[in-house]
Amino acid sequence: MKDSKKINIIILITVLFFNCNVFNKSKDNNNQKNIIALVLLSSTSNCGYVQNSVGASKFGTATVTCDSTYAYIASTGIATHTMMNGITGTNLQVPIPQSFTGTNAWKIPLSPAIASSTTTPSTGPIGIAINGVPLYNPCKQEGCTSTSGDTKALGELDICNGHAGRSDDYHYHAAPTCLMAGQSSSYWDTHPIGWLLDGFALYGYNDADGTVATRDSVCGGNTKTVVNGPTGYSYHVTDTFPYILSCLRGSPSPDFAGQAAKFTNLRTPPVTPFTVSSMTLTLASDTTSYNVLQFTASSTFLSTVDNSAASITNSAGVNQIKYRQLTGTELTTALASNSGKTSCWQFLFPNASSSTDKTFCR
């Protein structure tokens, strides 16, 4: 039986029990029990909001299960729209699937409420888009302001406002425009684009009535009426810094503090971000072919391609990084010399002067 159906049955029984005068005819006790029942009902409807929003995604595959406290959004963190195209400032990381499944799924609180104090994110995920791709604040890992460290302003985001981070994980730092292109712009006035780690929903540029969303001076959201999401507060994307939010207005789930445990770095970042042009990513059509990240460098550059301090010279002009996930006997062979690892990728660096074929495992 689906978790949501189980919860609905439990709540129905609970409501009937709480309202049955055979068990307790005390008016005060009945009022208290009715309040508890309403909270449970609210939690269940919020689970439905998360499930429905994720089910409507056209550019990624995520799944949702719920208990009485959280909705759990599980995914591989990979979008099915184009990724990495148009980046001009890159550290040459690439998108590979992540393990946001099972106990590592993202926890979204089902009974969000405005907290007595706000939580300001410094780095890492602040929520999850409905296609299972994490949402970040606008900053580089070292932090940022509106004039320094803004990934979008630095050209480090692709045409969809995403890029691959230090764990070769794809994520958005601003409005996920390619995801949003799957529906009319007005659709996002009343349907969540994603869910923040405090349980409140992220909508498009407008409020539910179609007017440009107001942004308060607290976290950049508002308390207006919403549709298909929990009441109390909502966030809205904008094309100006900080793009999604400046702080979390509700109490975040444990995933906010424990987010680092969800990621395992595969390899050392190859370079400090540098300027390139004409970046594209072409995904392989089968498991034996390579994904190809291609870009143009205006001059020779040094990169780290083997998780050591040694640098390799790369040619100016058109460059490529080719990579694929190993399976079958190739994976078994690679894991034999990588104790404790479970998955491996082969990388080729055809424009490097040496060390052009490397296998990385995690």
Describe the structure.
By secondary structure, the chain is of the alpha+beta class. Helices cover 18% and strands 24% of the residues. Helix 1 packs antiparallel against helix 2 (27-55). The strands form 7 sheets. The protein has a 5-stranded mixed sheet. Strands 15-16-19-20-21 form a 5-stranded antiparallel sheet. Mean pLDDT is 89; it is low at 1-27 and 31-41. 41% of the residues are buried. It has 3 domains: 3-55; 57-63 and 71-264, no CATH class; 274-361, no CATH class. It is built from 6 helices and 21 strands.
Q: Could you outline the blueprint of secondary structure elements for this entry?
A:
Elements: H1 3-18, H2 27-55, E1 62-66, E2 70-75, E3 89-90, E4 106-109, E5 114-119, E6 125-129, E7 134-136, E8 162-164, E9 170-172, H3 177-180, H4 187-190, E10 194-196, E11 201-203, E12 235-236, E13 248-250, H5 254-257, E14 274-275, E15 277-282, E16 291-297, E17 301-303, E18 312-314, E19 317-325, H6 328-336, E20 344-348, E21 357-361
Parallel strand pairs: 11-12
Antiparallel strand pairs: 1-2, 2-4, 3-14, 5-13, 6-7, 6-10, 8-9, 10-11, 15-16, 16-19, 17-18, 19-20, 20-21
